[in-house]
Design a protein that fits this description.
Layout: H1 9-26, H2 33-49, H3 56-80, H4 82-85, H5 95-98, H6 103-121, H7 126-145, H8 152-161, H9 163-172, H10 177-200, H11 202-208, H12 213-217, H13 221-243, H14 246-267, H15 272-299
Helix pairs in contact: 2-3, 2-9, 2-10, 2-15, 3-6, 3-7, 7-8, 7-9, 8-10, 9-10, 10-13, 10-15, 13-14, 14-15
Amino acid sequence: MKAPAPKVPSELITELQTQFGQYARLMRLDKPIGIWLLLWPTLWGVWISAEGQPDPWVFTAFVFGVIVMRSAGCVINDYADRKIDAQVRRTASRPLARGDIDAVEALVLFALLGLIALGLVLTLNRTTQLLAIGAAALTIVYPFCKRFFAAPQLVLGAAFAWGIPMAFAAHTGTVPRLGWLMWLTVVIWAVIYDTMYAMVDREDDRKLGVRSTAILFGQADVFIISLLQVTMLIALFLIGEVAQLGMWYRLSVLVSALLMLYQYALIRNRKPDDCFHAFLHNRHIGMTIFIGIALAYIFEPVSS
């Protein structure tokens, strides 16, 4: 039998580009919304824990850590959901669901991303390293808890908020009550926006046995989201008072309240496209609060 002709360099390059493109899609680098939703609260923690003057390496390590851990989370999530995703129209084109990447490749990629994250966290102090174990555990557990836990958004929220106590630990060696208040606030926020996200796939999830707060809340979903938004605004206000952030920060909370009213207008009729748009819109809330924090430390520095 005649051996196949060797591939010319241009064909190899094209094949490699295609494969790396699939890996990038698996890590959701083409859809950065998850990076923003993880990055903004992490930056809240980095700035407030350092009173507006973050250590350059801590800032750099946390920004890169956000990108790496969000990518790792997407990989392990798609690995866990590869059979389910193939049955849902919105997710059927994901690389694992289509078979463009096999399960072993995904696990190897997840391990490599985990090693990069480990390398970053080893440059930080011992307390931060210990907290990073919790971040890793939450990242791994979340995709699988959707099978048996009625409110997996709480686990997602705990994971997405975990950068806040880690930021306090990195700058101060400990996590004060303010850090945990901020953590709880972001957990509430994640339940809000991920319920909006789950409202898009609610009927498919119900048929496939996937749990979510959109299913748990039922017809009370919009009311409960609104109640959680009010709770989050109160918590954000308390954060500003404890951290003495002043007028600029309060203004950012007010703007966030107006943004939430817009989100209510989007989700009240439960149309999937509008619910998805409301989910994406949450990146503006994260950015608005961060701008308020940054301006507070620029124009109203906290007296020592």
